[in-house]
Amino acid sequence: MAVHKSDQITNIDASPRVYLKPNEHGYIERRWFSFTTPAGNVAIADTIQLCKVPKSARVVGGFCSFEAMSTGAGAAGAEIGDGTTSTKFKAETSVDAAGTFRFGESIAENFGLEATAAEFTLTATARTEAWAAAKKFYGYVDLLLRN
Q1: pLDDT tens per residue, the chain (147 residues)?
Q2: Which domains can be identified in the chain, with CATH numbers?
Q3: Assuming Cys at both sites, which of 9, 30, 81, 92 could form a disulfide with 5, CB separation 3.0 to 4.6 Å?
Q4: What b-and-e string marks burial along 20-55, b requiring 16 or more CB atoms within 10 Å of the CB?
């Protein structure tokens, strides 16, 4: 039976030892966000800035809870991104009826993405239909930060 090692164990066992990056061990910090749609609603393709992700943090998942965003004109959707790519952490998902969804929790959704170059802003983008006025969109993102 073969024994396989993670990248981190391989580095620790190397001679000379290769030290872990600061964001490969440390603590999880949960960053909360809350947003209520304004009186004029949120139009299709509008972006909501949710929270900041500091340089060197790793995104290790998140969660959104929301009221029914539908204005009755279609099927309201949301994407979760990094301010540059609107679908970085979640491709369009329905927010038409009240509910919840998780994001950034798979390789396809960039689980473990490291903010290498600089801090970025976690965003939500309205898709398919405008979001109704006075509706709540709440959630959090979990970040692995250095010790």
Answers
A1: 888 878 888 888 888 888 877 777 778 999 999 999 999 889 999 999 999 999 989 999 999 999 999 988 789 999 999 999 999 999 999 999 999 999 999 999 999 999 988 999 999 999 999 999 999 999 999 999 875
A2: 22-145 (2.60.120.220)
A3: 9
A4: eeebbebeeeebebebebeeebbeeeeebebbbbee
